[in-house]
């Protein structure tokens, strides 16, 4: 692909710079191509992109070859530098777009993974709640799954809110013991 692009660029440079202009372009190339490559490479840190920058720069120079003096080294190198900057910007935009796509896909994959893990954890928790004595299991479900307040639970059960908090504390302690036992049993397997 790059060789095809280079061949097209050289063909264009040859077409533009006929006769005397072509000789001048060849002299400019032989005088400055290494310096231009160095400037481009120092910006891009990529051999192939630096070569592309040099060739693109010479196409730009070929368009203005009659107005450029062979002693305009600073001007010629600034063309190479600016071309390298342009190529670097295009590359970083492309890379950042790819990174965004990867992040979106990665975030989505993590999110799906988290959902599956959360569902599995929730299922385990519900099974353990079912194993609790009825008074504790019902209280945990009503408090944390159905989000009833202590006052609502007290009215429903005909007990004081303090008594509700005490029973919830005992139920949570019992549930925690059951979950810890289950974890220890799975660790030994």
TrEMBL record:
Organism domain of life: Bacteria
Pfam family, one: Sigma70_r2
Biological process according to GO: DNA-templated transcription initiation
Entry annotated with the keyword Transcription: yes
UniProt keywords, alphabetically: Sigma factor, Transcription, Transcription regulation
Keyword DNA-binding recorded: no
Domain RNA polymerase sigma factor 70 region 4 type: 124-175
Residue ranges of every copy of the RNA polymerase sigma-70 region domain listed in the record: 28-94
Entries under SUPFAM superfamilies matching the protein: Sigma2 domain of RNA polymerase sigma factors, Sigma3 and sigma4 domains of RNA polymerase sigma factors
Gene Ontology MF terms: DNA binding; sigma factor activity
Family: Belongs to the sigma-70 factor family. ECF subfamily.
Protein name: RNA polymerase sigma-70 factor, ECF subfamily
Originating organism: Desulfitobacterium chlororespirans DSM 11544
